[in-house]
Specification:
With 241 residues, the protein is α/β, with parallel strands linked by helices. 45% of the residues lie in helices and 15% in strands.
């Protein structure tokens, strides 16, 4: 019962904060620089991190922060939960996410996404989507933003990784930007179907060594990132303590 009440309180706080924060972010967006927008969204992410710990007793720890480069990079990570789409904003510098264009049409939630300069593509048009991905990705990197890509495309159950698509590797290859591979086990505590059944514990996030992209093919880069992530995931907990 305690766990259910905590989960319910978290969902209420998440919804209310999104409704309050997103219109404000959209209104202020024209007056803020690209990195200021990311910092402003980071305030909301910070609240969610705190509220998640208070209500659901979920925290996180990060290893490998020393691997982060000084220049904007492309983060390639496994995708298990909504957790990483929020908390990564507190772990990495100001960032833009790759997402489906349709998500921007969702009231309040989509407005907040739009204010944070995502890379929004039309997946129904695959050829155009790849060009949009590369063009917008290179532009975001030039502004000093990091790019976060979940190459599996959708959230996957713990222990069942999906196929890694090469979109993030294409951006890195074309822009000459470094790739930062990341593995985590957020799905153990906040899975795809656990709106009211989040489990207390500590999410483990592991940041791998930088993968240099200059002069290398996207397919080669994607394979290297995938191999590192899958290997790192094998060492992470697959169930709560």
């Amino acid at each position: 019962m305690r766990q259910f009440i905590g989960n319910f309180a978290f969902v209420i706080g998440q919804v209310v904060s999104t409704i309050l924060f997103s219109p404000l972010a959209l209104v202020l967006s024209p007056f803020l620089s690209s990195l200021q927008k990311a910092a402003f969204i980071g305030v909301w992410a910070g609240f969610i991190r705190w509220w998640l710990k208070v209500c659901c007793r979920i925290d996180y720890k990060v290893s490998g922060l020393e691997n982060l480069p000084d220049e904007p990079a492309v983060v390639i990570a496994n995708h298990q939960s909504a957790w990483e789409t929020i908390i990564f904003q507190k772990i990495f510098p100001g960032q833009s996410y790759l997402l489906k264009r349709e998500l921007l049409w969702i009231p309040f939630f989509g407005w907040g996404l739009a204010a944070n300069e995502p890379i929004a593509i039309d997946r129904a048009k695959k050829t155009q989507a790849l060009q949009q991905l590369i063009t917008q990705g290179k532009e975001r990197l030039k502004r000093g933003r990091w790019i976060v890509i979940f190459p599996e495309g959708t959230r996957r159950p713990v222990g069942q990784p999906g196929t890694f698509q090469a979109g993030g590797a294409f951006i890195a290859s074309k822009a000459g930007a470094p790739i930062v591979p990341v593995a985590h086990n957020a799905g153990v505590f906040w899975s795809k179907k656990s709106a009211f059944n989040k489990k207390p514990g500590t999410v483990e996030v592991v940041i791998g060594p930088v993968i240099e992209s200059k002069g290398r093919k996207a397919r080669e880069l994607n394979l290297q990132a995938e191999e590192w992530i899958l290997h790192a995931m094998q060492k992470l907990a697959i169930s709560p303590e």
